Amino acid sequence: MVVDAGLAPAHIELRAVSKHFGGVRALDSVSLSVRAGSVHAVVGENGAGKSTLGKIVGGVIAPDEGEVALNGAVVRWRGPHEALNHGVATIAQELAIVPELTAAQNVFLGAEPRRGVLLRRRELLRRYTSLCGRVGFGVPADTLAGELRVADQQKLEILRALARDAQFFVFDEPTAALGRDDIEKLHQVISRLRSQGRTVLLISHFLREVLEVANDVTVLRDGRLVRCGPAATETEGSLVQAMLGRSFEQPFPPKRRPPAGSPALLEIHDLWAAGVKGASLKVHAGEIVGLAGLVGAGRTELAQALVGARPAQRGRVVLAGKPFERRTPRRMLAAGLAMVPESRKEQGLFLGRPVGENAALSVLKELSRLGYVKRRTERRTVHEALQHVGVRSADMVEAGTLSGGNQQKLLFARVLLTKPLVLVADEPTRGVDVGARRAIYDLLAGFAADGRGVLIISSDAEEVLGISHRILVMRAGQVVAELDGETATEEDLVSASLLERRAS
Amino acid sequence: MKAVGLGEPVLGLEPSPPARPATRGLAARALDLVDLRRGGILLPFVALFVVLSATSAAFFTTTNLLNVLDQQASTLIPAAAATLVLVSGGIDLSVGAVYALAGVTAAHFALVTSPGLAIVVGILVGVVVGAVNGVVTAVFRVNSLIATLASSYVVGGIAGLATGGNIITDFNRPSFADFARSSFLGVRASTWVTLLAVLVLGFLLHRTTVGRYMYAAGGNAEAARLAGVRVHDVQILAFVLSGTAAALGGVIDTSRVLSAESSSGTTLAFTVLAGVVVGGTSILGGRGAVWRSVVGVLFIALIGNGFDLLGLNPLYEQIVLGAFLVLAVGLDAWTRLRRS
């Protein structure tokens, strides 16, 4: 489906661009040419300089050295608005949507059609409808933006850029917050932008999506350009190798099946909560159970109701043979059921506090005497825990300065310090680079191999298949299918997620 | 590496201390002092101190400095406690009203019972109001700004009702004045009490589990809850301490002047907040320190002291103070921006 942009002229060119942050060299003399009318992907590990590159192209930050050329002319923008005036729009990871305004109002925010001080509401609607028609978006004009799904909010940003006649789109990790089906739709949008002659710079973690949609791929490592070439000549393996600077054959650790007849460590019977409608499942000792399903199937809700983070109306939860009626995160942690939450920034970390404090929080009682924190003991414990999860960072730096992968590992350090029997990991590798991903899989596998249990929620089919001994598929708040982790295929997973309950 | 023994000392490898990231050169540490965010208020404070010492002969004298400390007792103690409230994600606007009610309560009980009992009852007023504030905020989820604003009206009203709007005087109970006025090693008792309160609150926030939980609760309440922190309890405790501290301030001032009225303390909440914020504690929660609030309050006190000693027009004092407040909050916002 990739349309070849052939020998089209460069739309945007970076010439020996460098950027430092403090003492850190984020980009080191990177030269790059993005052909007009192409989709150009930028991949690399976290910290490789992808986002920095995107921000320089989008005018969000200025390079320290080197220059940016638009259609051959050197430009130096003082902010994203200047870039937008030149037709370069950035669709960032964090969407800039006003939730209290309608879809149409958001799209024309700051450029409303008006007569004097009066808004021309009908004209606004007309323009919105015609704009939507041109790109084939179907977002209702009068819905409040805050009530839209993330994917639709993203469309509003794209529409907003189109309304200002943007010709060049920088997408910075656009699919990080999207579910699988929305990712597909976004790809269609990107392809449509290209078919209309627009240029797209796509910054992404997801190699498969990059290969599906991009004409060219640029690989960055440690702020340097590794290589840049047509996507058709790359494979996921070749990209990973280029990103890491070494070959990386096996993305998942080998599966060690739990011995037959392992006892059930965790049992859920007929659990009801908001979004969960009578779910039942078991996790056995030594087992990694994958919880798959579409976004909105109730997986996160199930995990939260399980650990007591959201109220459950009904249902039995039995941990190591003991039933737990009134659950709170605190009580369940003490009982040996820990969760790594879905959003590490919102539900996990204290970004402004030191790494050590973040790690020690859940076991602070054990590191103190009569409320006095024994800081030597704390430091030693934290140090070991960080080493165990593979975070090489001083315990005094703020957690917010760590990369996404290290932040996730830090959360694992905190949770593992509580010595849980069963670990619930909700999207544990979201926004995490390839190297850290493998480290997290190793942690989970090692944890299970110790005779404990793991329940992993993931929207990444490959991940669920690669790590789980057993896969449970949720739909509409219930567990509707069980698949064998060894034999199941991606097709099995998708059809179980989508189709009605099968006779099993 | 096996997933065992996390958190337990590794047997056999015992006493070798872990790599200490804190071993840094003197130069780096000296730089920290200059670092705006860490040093923050210290530099302006020292600068003001030096300027005042140079320009006013009366400033750098034991009498003047001890006087300033003595006068600030009823601001410093609530400010130290307010730091805990802000760090744990709340705000307490009721300190002025609590100060007044505790003051008139103590003044009243000093007339009818022993001074010791009067002090205890006065402080208990703060404990109770603080507990109510905490429960309304943490359990019933009323925004603490509104909750404590409301309770400040109620508490202030009760104080007015109880006194009928009159001043209660304890001039015939001179022994009650000992609480604030007796001196030890040449320093007033009120200053010793302040020192003790500040040290206790500082220790609580910076060296104990509860203090850590306060930072966690204010920094990210949801994450704290999921990590097993009793967020509500921690926030309630902060409000109880704040109420107690405000009451202690009221009792000290009553003891100092041997009289109390319900209309005193009307601006205390703002003076306290100004000191805390100028010190560099964030009103958004999760960030701050007790020592900062102490320096912040004293910084404001020095501005006032300087105006007095240098004979400047006191009408400008508030303008200067307001300007510093905006600077302090702006600096906080700016450092947050720079970090993200």
Question: Would you give an account of this structure?
Answer:
The complex is a heterodimer of chains A (504) and B (340). Chain A is an alpha/beta fold and 504 residues long. Chain A folds into 3 domains: 1-87 and 169-174 and 198-249, P-loop containing nucleotide triphosphate hydrolases (Rossmann fold); 92-166, no CATH class; 264-498, Rossmann fold (3-Layer(aba) Sandwich). In chain A, 33% of the residues lie in helices and 27% in strands. In chain A, strands 6-9-10-3-11-12 form a 6-stranded mixed beta sheet, with helices on both faces. In chain A, helix 14 (404-417) packs parallel to helix 15. Chain A is globular and about 70 Å long. Residues 1-5 of chain A have low confidence and may be disordered. Chain B has 340 residues and is mostly helical. Chain B has a domain at 72-275. Chain B has helices at residues 26-34, 36-39, 42-55, 62-87, 95-112, 115-138, 144-163, 178-181, 189-207, 209-219, 221-226, 231-257, 268-279, 290-310, 317-339; strands spanning 168-169, 183-184, 187-188, 259-260. In chain B, helix 6 (115-138) runs antiparallel to helix 7 (144-163).
- Which of globular, elongated, flat, extended, rod-shaped describes the shape of chain A? globular
Q: Give unreliable regions of chain A as ranges.
A: 1-5
Largest sheet geometry of chain B: 2 strands, antiparallel
Helix content of chain A: 25-40%
* Interface with most residues: A-B, 51 and 37 residues
- Quickly give the CATH architecture of the largest domain in chain A: 3-Layer(aba) Sandwich
Number of helices of chain B: 15
Radius of gyration of chain A: 24 Å
What's the count of strands of chain A? 24
- CATH third-level topology of the largest domain in chain A: Rossmann fold
